[in-house]
User: Fold this.
Amino acid sequence: MFCLKNIYREDILGRKRNRNLENEQKVHGGPISYNLVEDPQLRECVDQWIRRPFDVSELVKVIEALCSTDLFQQHYGVIGIRKLLSSGEQTTIQSVIDANLIPRLINFANDDNEPHLQLEAAWSLTNVAAGTTQQTQSILDKGGVQCFVKLLSSKREEIAEQAIWAIGNISGDSNVFRDKILHCGGLDPLIAVIGKTSQRSIIKHGSWALSNLCRGKPLPEIELVERAIPTICKIIAMEDDLEVLTDATWALAYLSRVPEKIEGIVSTGIVPKIIQFLSVKSLGLLVPCLRIVGNIMVGTAEEIQPVLVEPEFLPKMMALVQHSKKAIKKEACWTISNVTAINAEVTELVVGNPEYLKILLDTATSDNTEVQKEAVWVFANATKKSHPQQISKLVDNGVLEMLIHLLNSKDAEVIEVCLEAIWNILNWGAIYAQESGIRENPFLVELDNRNGVEIIENLQNHPKNDVYLKALRILEEHFELETPL
Assistant:
């Protein structure tokens, strides 16, 4: 029987991002000090501390200031800590943890009365979360996730953006941390802040954080992330920044793995945009878009239709079958195999095109086994859903010859798929012979003339049991086997 396959590689969570000194000069068009510090005297001091360098030799002094009850000293200390952490040195991060500063920083981050202190503390914690898993865990242990989820709803965009950055780092560390954020209700305020902002940086970092929340192996509980679909699709439809598009399409690729959510994705009208991206040069954007389309193709007839009606879909897919990268060729063939599994009419759009047929035959006989396997599945599915006239055309164009040739493959899975396709072809030949009143199955004759019968007989000795069983099935159904004495 035909198979709708799903191919997924190992998932790699989004890299962590340390917010370094290059990022601090301006926030949304103005110096941090002028945005969030109201007291003129404190503002002047803060501005000086922001502009001056801090050396790790000052760490003890900075820690003492951070632990002070004096507001000026607190600002000096938190700015110093943040600037030292911005170097990304894990030893500095660990020194901050060992000094038990995480609870202090979280307290500052929770204090809405001192917004600049709040921002600097959140920024410091974000850079701690850019460290190792154990260092990130130190934030979670002290209630850091709940703090950042709260900050996502801040009326000050600078602080909300900092929370987004932290959420992205924490969720990018592990599935456990990702799920902690989701169970703490982190998705809805993240979607809200992305939806109402006009700030490019928030959209950029928000797309990355969304991608981290939606990805992973195993996937997050779909009920916790499905509400992100409209926002993600809106970002894809409206954005032209490659990095934003890459993050957003990866998020959608993960969500599209869940068959029950394909309808929701298709209903947003995003399919034409995704197909448009199938010709981009950037692999970072191309791969998730190809995966989205492939996942849609395992959906219902109604869900698949918006893909099939796009005139550029099949031409772009066939171009990807000839891509220079093995992984792209493999995934393109997988998607097309799901197309040929739909029905005879749709199958004809693929195998009825002489140019497409030649490309697929060439790919099936290529020197890469993984690509071969996916290309052969195109024909295994096509022969299951075709009719005798269509099968006859395929045989005339060398499909049966190709399948017989690949029965000599060293890869057992390739042989299994070829036997599946041959089984389908012979079944259609038997139907054709019966309906036409002819004595012999024409495809059986063709198989015998090309030495295929002998090869299939020999496969009864194959070490893999599934190969033996498939070969035996063909021989028992379509040949008179000798009964041992």
Summary: The chain is about 70% helix and 0% strand. Confidence is low (pLDDT under 50) at residues 1-13, 21-34.
